[in-house]
Design a protein that fits this description.
9 strands; alpha/beta; about 290 residues; 11 helices; 2 domains; 7-stranded mixed sheet; two-stranded antiparallel sheet
Length: about 290
Amino acid sequence: MLAYLLIRSLIQFFGYLPFGIIYAISRFLRFVLQFIVRYRFNTIKENLERCFPNFEENEILSILGKNYKNLATIIVEGIKGLSLSKEELMRRNQFIGIEPVQNLLASGKSVILICPHTNNWEWTVLASGYYFPDKTIGIYKEIRNSYIEKYIYTLRSRCSMQLISTRYTRLINEEIPKGRAILLMSDQNPSNTKDAIQSYFFGEKIPVLHGLEKYARQYKLPVYYLDQKRISPGYYQVSVSLLSNNSSELKETELTQLFMSKVEECIRRDPSSWLWSHRRWKHLNT
């Protein structure tokens, strides 16, 4: 109960703070994470060196510092985002190119929206529920504390998104015939590699979550990629582009490779924006 009260108080407190103070907190948090706690410093550095072997040490350290800044920004914006109104969130996180998806949903057809852990993906997830009202399905991992779980669930579902726990993903099969936008994030390392799909990422073959391939191919769903770019502090633009029109026509694993290649392209455009603190390559040699 104490943890719940602390989390609830923090979210409500951030809700009252102007963005100027939010970013002051972010700068302090970045300093703590990078220089005091040194949060996953070696993991971030090793990941960057692995993907950019031709970069000089000073280039790696520069990206590393910017990545801590991005991480701190995501944390404070993520907390603040839970209290933002529909109008404010859509103003700060504008989707472009959404008409094809809207048309498909209006005709009762389902689509898959896929996005990576770049920039403020939390806002992309929340805003999806507003841009595609009463049509979006989000997959999430439950929080062990039941009080916190219920509270965060309530805040996230304000945007009309239907939330399905990772424990009950089978329920997606029941929703697909109803015309839904299924939001997936498949760029991080799978906890279970048994059903993973092997795909090339920065020149190495890695395991990738199989959900994208499974649902898109089985139900012949079109797949749209959500590419979020930071325009200025607190403002983003999400470009919605077609990744595959009929995934069942692709060769097996080809769709996953298309997605991972797109993620790599976005990372190379802005290396500091991705979640490098994740141990993405830990199963590479297992």
